User: Fold these one by one.
Assistant:
Number 1:
Amino acid sequence: MTNYKRRISLIKDDITKLNVNAIVNAANSKLAGGGGVDGAIHRAAGTELAIACSLLNGCPTGDAKITQGFKLPAKYIIHTVGPVWRGGNSNERELLESCYKTSLDIAVQNNVSSIAFPNISTGIYGFPKKEAAELAIKTVVDFLNKNQLPEEVIFVCFDDDNYNIYNELLK
Ligand code: ADP
């Protein structure tokens, strides 16, 4: 088994429950809280998170910003804004790749040893799940091959489709 494989794991769970250094949020560009995983994270972290996010002046698509985890077990939340799928000719792939890469860069800057990613853009934003998973895994593997941190990356799937896709790709 190569080095990076020992540093990647897959679980089916609610990301707000995880006891990791940082979780990633699939946020919107206003960092205003919303549906899906974003709503779950805001509910679990408490109202202090909304206040912290309101001070960040939003976040462009493909970029990421960090806050504390507040009431979450995780110390940090890295908020990244995935692309809305518009058919595939609007830079969606590059932007999604940038979400993973930028989140990992911010994790390194904050000395994060364990980080959990949800399946960014594959819910309300409609990115095709298999392609999103391939891109997420490739971006994470490339990053881990070049960086000591984070020591551990966890892909957190919530729906069966995504879990089955990741399970197959990570075999
Ligand atoms: P986006 O707008 O980026 O598509 P969504 O929140 O709609 O974001 O969906 C992204 C992914 O998050 C989906 O695959 C969805 O199943 C998953 N998800 C929803 N709630 C949770 C949760 N509590 N923990 C982990 N993943 C979740």
Number 2:
Amino acid sequence: MSLFSPEKFMESALKNLPKEIDGPAIIAVSGGVDSTVAAAAVAKAIGEDLLAVYVDTGYMRLNETEAIEEILRNLGLKYKIVDASTRFYEALSGVIDPEVKRKTIGELFIQVFEEIADEYGGDYLIQGTIAPDWIESGGGLRDTIKSHHNVGGLPEKMNMKIVEPLRDLYKDEVRTLARHLDLDVAERQPFPGPGLAVRVIGEATPERTEIVRQACHIAEDEIDKAVENGEMESPWQYFAVLLPVQTVGVQGDVRAYGNTVAVRAVQSFDAMTAQASEIPWAVQQRISRRITNTLKSEINRVVYDITDKPPGTIEWE
Ligand code: XMP
């Protein structure tokens, strides 16, 4: 049981954040729980001085940009939506190594924000970093498990001062805070900062990203429906990954040589450990059939990842 008190957290945030942030600030909002909660908390503390920026990296979920715009509108914040997808696709062209991917995305994120901040005159960059992000990003005596985009990806020289109001919180505490602030993003499943780029294993080209975007949507939609029908409990996080593996299959009576999608669903409490979820067989079959039917010319094999964390991590990269 967490001893975290959202009332005390907000009391201290309202007292301390205006002292820490004494000028215009911008926050990168991804629509995930962390950045949305950070935006709502900081907006309460500094109000009009905050601009929320959503960057469409091209690696977002299906219909995510529209959903995020609605969240931002409902928060009543000043916000700006920037389509930077072409720049991100170009930056990741030819990049295969997961750490290079993460760092490239992190650096471009900051570059895009710095441009917006210059335009807007922002002195502070608010980030929704939470405890597991910096713990896993290494430093000091810790090993680097993976560089979370908002930690390891930051360039050494920054023009803006970074403020991370949720830095000491774990995921369950952020959700408690979200409920306290009456934000309906509280129940949204986590989505990694580098987005679908870390769910396309190998080069995250626009074409391969589109495949994983569809596959993720199908996996999410089928699991959501199964949860609604009472067939299973909701996993903590569930998605699809596109593998750089081609296998032989058959379509009608014609040989196919297509790509493989892995489906992953996990139970977790704070993302530091996770257990692979037991998905009923019928639900797995619906996911597999719908993915191979919808993406007929691309995918001819679907597998389910049964690895816990550790030894796996939740995302594949
Ligand atoms: P891993 O893959 O490290 O993920 O077991 C733990 C949780 O964090 C999410 N994740 C990220 N979140 N920036 C984030 O804000 C990142 O760079 C990042 N990488 C992974 C992941 O989806 C899971 O919920």
